[in-house]
Write a structure and sequence with these properties.
The complex is a heterodimer. Chain A is α/β, with parallel strands linked by helices. Chain A has a single domain, classed as Glutaredoxin, CATH 3.40.30. A 5-stranded mixed sheet of chain A has the order 3-2-1-4-5. Chain A is elongated. Chain B has 4 domains: 167 residues, no CATH class; 226 residues, no CATH class; 107 residues, no CATH class; 99 residues. In chain B, helix 6 crosses helix 7 and helix 13 packs parallel to helix 15. The N and C termini of chain B lie far apart (62 Å). The chains are: A alpha/beta, B alpha+beta. The interface between A and B is medium-sized, with 16 and 28 residues.
């Protein structure tokens, strides 16, 4: 008796599968391949006088850090600067990587748009940016205390992204 | 005005379908004593068919005139397009193709109403009612979710044009043929439902179903062959089958219909395989619907790149769940009441046909799983695509086994095979073995699978004709001729595939004008590259002078740029010979830097499609033979012999 309804059961399984797929359409979020991996090795000279440069060895010294890839010539970076300031005031430890930039320009940028950074490394050839798997500027990473990348945000931060950033920051404490 | 009239005709047809369904339910409840309602249903089915045909012709007229006040025309046509593509463009889009689907559905119902005299009125009414019920769902889909007659206000100044890949004579032939095959299977579905509803599953039902299955199968075969050849020369990849989900969507109903075609004969001749045949009739049309769903929802990534529309996908999925679910539930509920059919020995015609059905069903299941696997994997958060390595590996050996089965199956007797193995089987076996050895020597064992394919094909060429041996050919029934031709077609097609796989020569070069390139035994000279223009495109055209020592021939492959929509296609140039095809594609290039040329020499590749056409021809012969014979028998019963 049950056997006779096997075709019906198979059909329902098929309908269930494709209905699930129809209901949950493609998300346009691409999860970074770097999440879960250790920060690639780099050692950057200081980008401005008076602040240390940034090396991968500085990350993963027990305390989590956020790394922001930016540039003074990058307009979206201006847009996200106030948000980074706000995060820094909340207690997030943020380091910067200035891509293809000049020291004077970086100084002007920080003076005008705020300076949330503890350390800023200069990345004149985009080497560190590429090593980190960033497609451009700005991008942000959260690195946990062991030097593992916990979160990767592509593009400028917007106010809507802040809750997720805070959640990720809490998670690595 | 034409758009409004067409639209009204559709609504009217939908209303008639509703009426037809209502009458069907009434008849099924036994409230039709004088048969008037059954007669009315037949008239309704014909009227509904005529109305949808009218609506379809209206849409063709709108496309013919490039009426840019109709949204569909503005979005998919343009005034500067050749007339053939204006007409064919009618079904080169979602709404138009769904109207084609609904029209074929209604015409099939009309055909059932007109010609199905063999069915008694209760079964016929139930079948027409089912046909109307399915039709209603698709009318609703058309009228509420994909109205082809929607106006555009204000009208467009110029249309957006038809996708250039579709601007090909293939579009005029391939989709309608395929749709007639797809949707024609709905009649077998409806007859099966009717048989189960009225408890009349038996040989008479099978005989009534058979012409519909045959006709759909012939068209489906021809449609697939046409599509395969179209993709082969249009896409410029030099392949004839890509295992793309949309191709599989047409292959799956074909596999089910092929199995059904054989099992329906067992039911008609021997009253065996009742439940199985009903199941196949349900599965065949269900696969058509699954195919439509896969194509129209865009749920699986495909080179065919139809528009993705989750809403439309959900609509078709709901229809599919309703109809197929209802059918499967009915099957589970009713099939227990169907008496077990006649018994038969393992070695018998029936036994061979069961083996054929099992192999076809397993292939169908494997193709189905392969097509949907990426989806299931995604549910487990894994991204994967399934391609030729899977399909060729799992389907190929089973297909060869199926070919071997054809050596003996048609020669066995019904119920129990008493005589020994026919001598022709031994002959086929010897030929197959000899071909295998020859192929292994010629290819030095490199293309093992193709060698086996060629061997099976060579033996089958003889085996397929052996049912005709020793008979007076004039007296062989046309249906037997049909079987022999179709099976011979399988051998021809298989030989083409094996030859293509084992002996194709390919060259990819960057050549300067004046340079000579060799591919296989051919010398190809890139003589010149020049710009040319057509009615709605411009192109870079290469002039290739090709020769293999017996005169020079000129081939002109193009890289063609269309203005609306702006797209570049590569138009391959083919030189067809008795022993194969030379296939040339012009790729990127620049003056001074040379031009990319891709050349293939494909020995006997055309056999693939000739074989496919022979298979369809065999089906056609069987259809004509059986219809003629049964018509004669019916006349003989009606008019008793006078003396």
């Amino acid at each position: 008796m049950v056997k006779r309804f096997v075709p019906l059961a198979l059909l329902l399984a098929f309908v269930g599968l494709v209905a699930w797929k129809l209901m949950a359409p493609e998300t346009d979020k691409v999860t970074s391949q770097l999440v879960g991996r250790t920060v690639p090795t780099f050692a950057l000279e200081p980008a401005v006088a008076g602040k240390p440069g940034l090396a991968s060895a500085d990350l993963g010294k027990g305390a989590p850090r956020m790394v922001n890839i930016f540039a003074s010539w990058c307009v979206p970076c201006i847009a996200e600067a106030p948000l980074l300031d706000a995060l820094a005031r909340e207690g997030l430890a943020i380091d910067g990587i200035a891509v293809r930039d000049r020291p004077d320009d970086v100084v002007d940028f920080l003076a005008e748009h705020g300076d949330p950074f503890g350390a800023i490394g200069a990345d004149p050839e985009s080497a560190a940016m590429i090593a980190l798997g960033a497609a451009g500027v700005p991008e942000s990473f959260i690195v946990d205390g062991s030097g593992r990348i916990a979160y990767h945000h592509q593009g400028p931060l917007t106010p809507a992204d802040l809750p997720e950033i805070r959640r990720q920051w809490e998670a690595v404490q | 005005m034409i758009a409004e009239i067409g639209h009204a005709a559709l609504w009217l047809a939908a209303a008639l379908a509703l009426l037809q369904l209502g009458l069907g339910i009434t008849v099924l409840r036994g409230r039709d004593d004088d048969g008037a309602m059954a007669l009315a249903m037949r008239a309704l089915a014909v009227a509904q068919g005529a109305l949808t045909l009218f609506a379809f012709l209206s849409l063709i007229l709108l496309f013919w005139r490039t009426d840019l006040s109709v949204e569909l025309v503005a979005a998919h046509s343009a005034s500067a397009k050749p007339w053939l593509y204006k007409v064919a463009g009618t079904w080169g889009n979602h709404e138009g193709s769904m109207l084609l689907w609904v029209m074929v559905m209604s015409l099939s119902g009309a055909g059932l109403g007109l010609f199905a005299r063999r069915l008694d009125s209760a079964v016929l009414s139930a079948a027409l009612g089912t046909q109307a019920a399915i039709g209603l769902g698709f009318f609703a889909f058309l009228l509420f979710a994909s109205n082809p007659f929607a106006r555009l206000n204000p009208p467009a100044v110029e249309g957006r044009g038809l996708n250039p890949v579709l601007q090909d004579p293939g579009l005029a032939f391939h989709p309608p043929t395929l749709y007639f095959g797809y949707v024609g299977l709905s009649v077998a579905f409806s007859i099966a439902i009717a048989g189960m509803l009225t408890d009349r599953v038996g040989p008479a039902l099978a005989r009534a179903m058979r012409p519909w299955v045959l006709a759909s199968w012939v068209l489906l075969t021809a449609g697939i062959v046409a599509g395969s050849y179209w993709a082969y020369y249009e896409l410029g990849w030099g392949g004839y089958w890509f295992w793309d989900p949309v191709e599989n969507a047409s292959l799956m109903p074909w596999l089910a219909a092929t199995a059904l075609l054989h099992s329906v004969s067992v039911l008609a001749a021997r009253s065996a395989l009742k439940a199985w045949t009903m199941m196949l009739a349900l599965v065949a049309f269900s696969m058509s619907m699954v195919g439509t769903f896969l194509v129209r929802s865009g749920i699986i990534t495909s080179v065919h790149a139809f528009a993705v529309d989750p809403l439309r996908g959900s609509f078709i999925l709901a229809l599919l769940a309703l109809y197929v679910g209802g059918a499967m539930a009915l099957f589970g509920w009713k099939i227990g009441g169907v008496r077990e059919g006649e018994r038969f020995d393992l070695v018998s015609r029936e036994g061979a046909l069961v083996a054929n059905n099992l192999l076809l069903s397993v292939i169908l299941a494997l193709v189905f799983i392969g097509t949907l696997y990426p989806l299931a994997a995604e549910a487990l958060d894994e991204r994967i695509s399934v391609g030729p390595p899977y399909f060729n590996t799992v389907v190929g050996p089973l297909a060869l086994l199926l070919g071997l089965l054809l050596y003996v199956g048609p020669l066995l007797g019904w119920r129990r095979h008493r005589r020994g193995v026919p001598r022709s089987v031994a002959l086929s076996g010897v030929i197959a073995a000899a071909s295998l050895v020859t192929m292994l020597i010629v290819t030095r064992g490199e293309h093992l699978f193709a060698c086996f394919g060629m061997a099976v094909a060579a033996g089958l060429a003889v085996a397929s004709l052996s049912p005709l041996f020793g008979r007076r050919l004039g007296r062989v029934p046309m249906a037997t001729w049909g079987m022999a031709v179709a099976h011979f077609g399988v051998a021809v097609s298989l030989a083409g595939m094996a030859s293509e796989a084992a002996f194709t020569k390919e060259t990819l070069v960057r050549a300067q004008p004046g340079e000579i390139v060799a591919v296989g035994s051919w010398q190809v000279e890139l003589h010149d590259v020049m710009p040319v223009a057509g009615p709605n495109w411009s192109a870079i055209e290469a002039e290739l002078r090709v020769s293999r020592g017996d005169g020079v021939e000129v081939l002109r492959p193009q890289s063609r740029a269309f203005a609306s929509p702006p797209t570049v296609t590569s138009e391959a140039a083919l030189s067809t010979h008795a022993d194969g095809q030379l296939y040339a594609v012009l790729g990127d290039g620049r003056e001074g830097e040379g031009w990319q040329l891709r050349l293939w020499w494909k020995p006997f590749v055309t056999l693939i499609w000739w074989g496919g056409l022979l298979i369809a021809l065999g089906g056609l012969l069987a259809l004509v033979g059986r219809t003629w014979r049964e018509g004669r028998r019916a006349r003989a019963i009606r008019e008793p012999a006078r003396w």
